[in-house]
Amino acid sequence: MNSAIKVLVIDDSNTIRRSAESMLRKEGYEVETSSDGFDALSKIARTKPDLIFVDIMMPRLDGYQTCAIIKNNDEFKHTPVIMLTSKDGLFDKARGRVVGSDLYLVKPFTRTELLDAVNQHTEKE
Q1: Could you tell me the CATH number of the domain that includes residue 10?
Q2: Which of 7, 11, 17, 118 is 20 to 30 A (C-alpha) from 39?
């Protein structure tokens, strides 16, 4: 079932990208990674992921900007975007909701939290 689900992980931390990719691949998901928002936008257009994890604190294009661009695109506005961050303040969560994020995952996240987030947002109708 998972083999059809494509996940994109956008994070400037190689460690976070690799660990999320490893956890997701073990469950049978197709995983693409990207180190920043600019690089991610072309990957999104090319791979059309079913779910996107995006770090908030990144160079060039941060997670809020990346999420807003995704959600303002007619083709991708229904793609779930889950914010990844080490900041868990109310302001950050509110700002994430304003730009259209579907969930907020605080780093360091556990394997269970990561997989629950995917399962919660990729149940096909």
Answers
A1: 3.40.50.2300
A2: 118
